[in-house]
Amino acid sequence: MAASLVTLEGADGIFTLTLRRPEALNALSTELCVAVLEALARVEGDPDARVLILTGEGRAFSAGADLKEREGASAEAIWAHNRRIFQIPVELERLAVPVIAAVNGFALGGGCEVALGCDLRWAASTAELGCPEVSRGILPGAGGTQRLPRLIGSSRAMALILSGRRIAAQEAYRIGLVDAVAAPEDLLRAAGEAARAIAVNAPLAVRAAKRAIRYGLGRTLEAGLDLEGQLQRMLYESADCQEGIVAFRERRAPRWTGR
């Protein structure tokens, strides 16, 4: 059932969550959304988790909402479907560990909005991204009108959202929508290297840094600095902080315990 629509695999603290509706370009049906949210809860509940990579099977990361599910549906049913999609980027942002989107193909509409909820975005050179909702009589209602301007600036976000235009991976990289571009056959390897570069660091510190950055994005500088200080004070009391100091003195790799 829903579980077969995704796979969640993990090794050495790095998890890969794959959307598996390739025949539908990984369109976000209600059932697929439920499966993704359940998988995210599993990662959140794993104390050994360090990083999550999110990708899609086949030609698409995700082509967005499953419009076949909405055909003939009431406004209330469509709204309920939208809220399922909306929840995915919210939970990606809330997830304690960093999330890297490996955008393997089309990331359109809700699919692009899911990518926006990730902390980092790696894209295949063949990928296309965009928010074409206005061409379907709606707006990017899974957070796109808010996250996209925060990421690339209001003017560029206006141009993309109001035109509904798709852009290629290299243009997405140029405007800051994605952080790196790789050949399609190298995408997961490149995302994996980025994940490992994160995973080798102190897990409490990585989680705290993500929390501080995410918290500060929607608040004043003073509020962000206050939380940053609280988290730093907490980290000073951790065993990993002492391990980092000792490892530096002994010129060896630290052995993190997450405590």
From TrEMBL:
**The protein's name in its UniProt record:** Enoyl-CoA hydratase/isomerase family protein
Query: Does the keyword field hold Endoplasmic reticulum?
Result: no
Q: Record keywords: Lyase included?
A: yes
UniProt similarity note: Belongs to the enoyl-CoA hydratase/isomerase family.
List the GO biological process terms.
fatty acid beta-oxidation
Q: Which Gene3D superfamilies match?
A: 2-enoyl-CoA Hydratase, Chain A, domain 1 (3.90.226.10), Lyase 2-enoyl-coa Hydratase, Chain A, domain 2 (1.10.12.10)
InterPro entries in the record, alphabetically?
A: ClpP/crotonase-like_dom_sf, Enoyl-CoA_hyd/isom_CS, Enoyl-CoA_hydra/iso, Enoyl-CoA_hydra_C
- UniProt xrefs under Pfam families: ECH_1
Source species, please? Candidatus Segetimicrobium genomatis
List, alphabetically, the CDD domains matched: crotonase-like (cd06558)
